[in-house]
Write a structure and sequence with these properties.
Helix content: under 10%
Shape: globular
Structural class: mainly beta
Radius of gyration: 18 Å
Number of strands: 23
Bound molecules: 6-O-phosphono-beta-D-tagatofuranose
Number of helices: 3
Strand order of the largest sheet: 6-7-8-9-23-19-18-13-16
Distance between the termini: 46 Å
Strand content: 35-45%
Length: 303
């Protein structure tokens, strides 16, 4: 069972025929948004965006056909929120990779039908004894999602404690591509990156990023746009961001995907993670009473 009452949510936050709450896959409650510019689905667990489809466009976000939906479990695909650490916990091997934010309940605290025709949803992480056991620092985490011809995600960390906190974070977004072998990522040229497929060695990017095997890299000190250039779908996805100093690029390729078991047959061919993050030495220190925004906007351009 989940801690949500769908009738109450629809009464308080539903927006006529634009935004409704309903039971989604695995019985997990989702928000469904349909406006004239786009449609989207967001799971309340993890404030997890599962889909965004601009009108007249192919879906932009990839969700595994074999994604598992269950309370407390991460979902393969969409835009998982990684917080308050990225990757494995630096000291506690038993803590979940990428933090707990993506597998715990969040609450909706506002919805808006905006004047420009987009729709916004504000969600807040619900702390518990379990989250405080892994992250005792008093802090709040909110995610604002604006759904329209572009998609905005704004992850706000508020430090309500009396001491500084340091967070690692990412929107670990899976983008849908036609065939990863015909895709390149531009905008990361000449940047230093940590190559997680080659023992974490540090290298420098030469030209666009292309894919011919497992690729798992943390590009450092990167604050500008990057572009996913998809020949197969004849489109470019632009990622414009603020408050993010790292960009993570990941495709598991064949063997790793088979080991993971939830990407579906040939799933690796149709997905690419480009994650706006603060990871490795780019982690963010937030003073007492301070706050930090990790903000990004996705847009689709024809080739
Ligand atoms: O962001 C890339 C990465 O850290 C990869 O190393 C891989 O572990 C991926 O995240 C998926 O992680 P998950 O915990 O969602 O299976």
């Amino acid at each position: 069972m989940h801690p949500y009452n769908l009738d109450t949510l629809n009464k308080r936050f539903g927006l006529a025929d634009i935004l409704i709450f309903r039971e989604g896959p695995g019985g997990l409650p989702v928000v469904e948004v349909f406006n004239e510019q786009a449609s989207a689905v967001i799971a309340l667990q993890g404030a997890h965006l599962l889909q965004w489809v601009p009108s007249g466009e192919d879906p932009v976000i990839w969700l595994s056909p074999e994604a598992k939906f269950a309370a407390g479990k991460s979902v393969r695909g969409g835009a998982p929120v990684c917080w308050p650490w990225f990757g494995p916990h630096e000291r506690e091997a038993g803590f979940p990779a990428h933090g707990f934010a993506r597998t715990v309940p969040w609450e909706v605290f506002e919805t808006n039908a905006n004047a420009d025709g987009s729709t916004s949803v504000g969600l807040r992480l619900l702390h518990s004894d379990a989250t405080r056991a892994q992250w005792p620092a008093a802090s709040e985490l909110e995610l604002y999602i604006r759904i329209g011809t572009t998609l905005e995600l704004d992850l706000l960390t508020r430090n309500t404690s009396s001491t500084a906190i340091t967070i690692g974070e990412a929107l670990h977004t899976y983008f849908r591509v036609r065939d990863i072998r015909e895709v390149s990522v531009q905008g990361l040229e000449d940047l230093e990156y940590i190559d997680k497929v080659d023992g974490g060695t540090r290298k420098r990017q030469q030209g666009p990023v292309r894919f011919a095997g497992e690729l798992d890299r943390i590009y450092l000190d990167h604050g500008s746009d990057c572009l996913i250039h998809d020949l197969g779908l004849q489109r470019r996805i632009r990622i414009h961001k603020r408050g993010s100093h790292s960009t993570v690029v990941w495709n598991p390729w064949i063997e790793k995907a088979e080991k993971m078991g939830d990407l579906g047959p040939d799933g690796y061919l149709h997905m690419l993670c480009v994650e706006s993050a603060n990871a490795a030495e780019d982690v963010v220190k937030i003073g007492p009473g301070g706050e930090h925004h990790l903000w990004m906007r996705y847009s689709v351009e024809a080739l």
